[in-house]
Design a protein that fits this description.
The protein has helices at residues 24-35, 47-61, 75-89, 113-139, 163-183, 207-217, 230-237, and strands at 15-19, 39-44, 65-69, 94-97, 145-150, 187-194, 248-251. The protein has 260 residues and is of the alpha/beta class.
Length: 260
């Protein structure tokens, strides 16, 4: 970007795709991208939720919002998402790999092969496939593009309850670094690494206990709200990050994690 113009998160004329885009942090990113001028593609397993958000976004911003049913754990559905985006828009400028899952289990020994595969498929295989599909096409255009992965602090400080999830997110961090080199200089690949955010996943938490621990272990003494991911997402999506790639940005309120 040039230093002559005003500083702006302007995304006019761009198309942004967000997986896991119908709720939580994905929903907030969709709304922010549209407010900054982008047409958006809302992808998740639940089409009705995507369609409902699409209507809301179109009504409030005037931007086009396309709902697409997609389970990123399946290779063929990732292929289908890419084809739909390029058939409908002819381009993709921003891809956000936000879809994820971290199911509970009683013990590591109780993790079944199917559960292990499901966690790795959604959190690692799907993002890899989408980065390959979209990154390859972005790299062949003059405009290039931006890929934003959503990892987790579990990638670097996993608890026993996040064994497979943490492993998958560590892999996503590694892919961020690898594919930043693969698709440069046209495509920037970066990663947001959230700490505890009060999204739908927090419904399974003991929130009273979490609040007490937050006061002792998090500098900001609370969990993050879904819309607090927006600043990082807009930075990576816009030209303001034109010289930033292969970066992993931790957003965790200043949490202190025990030494591993």
């Amino acid at each position: 970007m040039s230093g002559d113009g005003p500083v702006s998160f302007d995304l006019s004329g761009k198309v942004a795709v967000v997986t896991g885009g119908s709720r939580g942090m994905g929903k907030e990113m969709i709304k922010a991208f549209a407010q900054c001028g982008a047409d958006v593609v809302i992808a998740s397993r639940k089409f009705d939720a995507c369609a409902m958000l699409a209507k809301e976004v179109e009504a409030s911003t005037g931007q086009r919002a396309l709902p697409v049913e997609c389970h990123v754990g399946y290779w063929d559905q990732c292929n289908g998402l890419a084809e739909t985006v390029y058939e409908e828009f002819g381009q993709c400028d921003v891809l956000v790999n936000n879809a994820g899952m971290s199911p509970l289990y009683d013990s590591v020994a109780d993790i079944s092969e199917s559960l292990y595969d499901k966690v790795l498929d959604v959190n690692l295989k799907g993002p890899f496939r989408l980065m390959a599909l979209f990154g390859d096409r972005m790299s062949k255009t003059e405009a290039g593009g931006s890929i934003i992965n959503v990892s987790s602090v579990a990638a670097v400080r996993p608890t026993p309850n996040e064994a497979t999830y943490g492993a998958a997110k560590a892999g996503l961090n590694a892919l961020t670094l690898s594919l930043a080199r693969e698709y440069g200089p046209k495509v920037r690949v970066n990663c947001i690494m959230p700490g505890p955010f009060l999204t739908d996943i927090a419904k399974a938490w003991d929130l009273e206990d979490f609040a007490k621990r937050a006061e002792e272990t998090i500098a900001l003494q609370r969990g993050g709200e879904p819309d607090e991911v927006v600043g990082a997402a807009l930075y990576f999506a816009s030209d303001l990050s034109s010289y930033t790639t292969g970066s992993i940005l931790k957003i965790d309120g200043g949490a202190v994690y025990p030494a591993s």
